[in-house]
Amino acid sequence: MSITFAQKVYALTRRIPKGKVTTYSAIAKALKIKWSARAVGNALNKNPFAPKVPCHRVVRASGEVGGFASGPKRKQAMLKKEGVIITQGRIDLNKYGYQFKIKS
DNA sequence: GTGTTGACCACAG
DNA sequence: GCTGTGGCCAACA
Description:
By secondary structure, the protein is mainly alpha-helical. It has five helices and four strands. It has helices at 5-15, 24-30, 37-46, 72-82, 93-96; strands at 22-23, 58-59, 86-87, 90-91. The strands form two sheets. Strands 1-2 form a two-stranded parallel ribbon. A hairpin with a 2-residue loop joins β3 (86-87) and β4. The protein is globular, with a radius of gyration of 13 Å. The protein binds a DNA duplex through residues 4-6, 23-25, 28, 33-47, 55, 58-62, 65-69, 72.
């Protein structure tokens, strides 16, 4: 059984440290498909690993929480609980923006 | 196999 | 800052 794109997304999402957030683009980049954040969102949307994969830690490149299955409100509250300060529905990617290690 | 949809991003105006 | 356009990917009908 080969590792699929979605599997990689889940693996990386699970890797996100607490109190930090990442963007779909960041994950896409880590997967070498930076031009396809859509596929990342699609994989997370299905999110078969719902409780295992902290999809709420994944936000848009603009810092907006974007959309979530259980409602963005729900995710924002959780992020805030983790220590992420959200302002006007946005997250300071400058401070909480987590970046995956990308091999050259 | 084709067409549409989707939790998107980047660029131009 | 917003709108419109083009683009890639995966999954579903």
